[in-house]
Specification:
The chain is built from no helices and 14 strands. With about 110 residues, it is mostly beta strands. Strands 1-2-3-4 form a four-stranded antiparallel sheet, with no helix packed on it. A hairpin with a 5-residue loop joins strand 3 and strand 4. The chain starts with 14 loop residues before the first strand and ends with a strand. It comes from Asaia lannensis NBRC 102526.
Amino acid sequence: MQNDLCPQCGSEHIYQDGALWICPECALEWSVTATAPVSEEDEVVRDANGTILSDGDSVTVIKDLKVKGSSSVIKGGTKIKGIRLVDASDGHNLSCKIPGVGSMNLKSEFVRKA
């Protein structure tokens, strides 16, 4: 049985949504089975196939990508070495150097682990 109080702010106005408990006052979400709250740091970055990515991995672009503000295109099949995971609010969660293009951020949904 749940404690009936938010573990972060102590609010009694919590509710269950599927497998998570949610506090509307501090926006904390935690698992029913876990004792620790679910945090954004625990989220993993996955590629287009669902494989977990980590810093230093090599990835391959799965489709042609237009570079915003430029006429260049990153061709599908381009291999990128040494990615870095970044926390970006716009969804571009990979930082990398692309051969022939330079440094830029990509969305993990357009790559697969090499």
